Amino acid sequence: MARDFAKYRRRRFSNIFVMGLCWSASALGIAVLFIILGTLIYRGVGHLSLGVFSEDMPPPGATGGGLRNAIVGSLILTFLGTVIGTPIGILAGTYMAEYGRHTRIASVVRFINDILLSAPSIVVGLFVYSLMVRPMGHFSGIAGAVALAVLVVPTVVRTTENMLLLVPNQLREAASAIGLPRALVIRHVAYKAAMAGMITGILLAIARISGETAPLLFTALDNQFFTFNLDGQISTLPAVIYKFALSADTRWQDLAWTGALLITVAVLTLSILARWLSSRRGKS
Fold first, then answer.
1. pLDDT tens figures, 65-105
2. Domain containing 278: what range?
3. Any domain includes 178
4. What CA–CA distance (Å, rounded) separates 17 from 132?
5. Positive or negative: CA dihedral 201, 206, 211, 217
6. Please, are residues 256 and 180 in contact by the beta-carbon 8 Å criterion?
7. Is residue 45 part of a domain?
8. 40, 156, 158, 173: most buried, per Cβ within 10 A?
9. Could you tell me how far CA 190 lies from the centroid of its own chain?
10. How do residues 15-33 score in pLDDT, each as one tens digit?
11. pTM higher than the cut 0.70
């Protein structure tokens, strides 16, 4: 009896100790997060003004200027990367979930997709640099959009496949029983049931690429002037933050903090929206 009681006390102590470690790690992570957010707000909000959105990057030593060209460039490349990568990801995820669920090629694609999910983004930048930038002979916004699209694809593939696999087969069987072809069953039944989860995956992919710097340094590089020319260098917010943060110019440093705050707010908004859609799907 005494031995059982001693064993119970040891287990209880171990449980309390491990729970304390878990709570301490959680508290540390949340504290670091709040410190980062607090620093961004403190350093970035003070220099946030209408000129940040209406004026272009200032030259060194200037007192004014903003981030208009970088913001517009980031929006363009993020939009193009999403438009290019999303259909590819949806089609690949659909094939693996609906047509080739147990085939060898699906297993190979799934394995490669898992590698791409964990691959450093700089590797993607180097790949697109050797594939497009070197043969073209110059940096370009098109290469930057392709690099971001490569980062979008694996996230969308994984999310699309997982969401379609969660759709009950009884829905597909019921639609097939009334004579619908398989393509229409996927389009009108499977996609409709998995739509919220697929949109969540797309939002997460956008949140991932919106803050990427390394692939853009190898592809789009930077441009101090406002331009819509995708065949040449184009400015992006992450690249400008990297450049301004390393500068000794105080105005550039202030704009770097403001740009970092804008990216953080955008990513946080997309993440919250993705969580909301995911929770809404769970309740429906």
1. 899 999 999 999 999 999 999 999 999 999 999 998 888 99
2. 51-283
3. yes
4. 55
5. positive
6. no
7. no
8. 156
9. 25
10. 888 999 999 999 999 999 8
11. yes
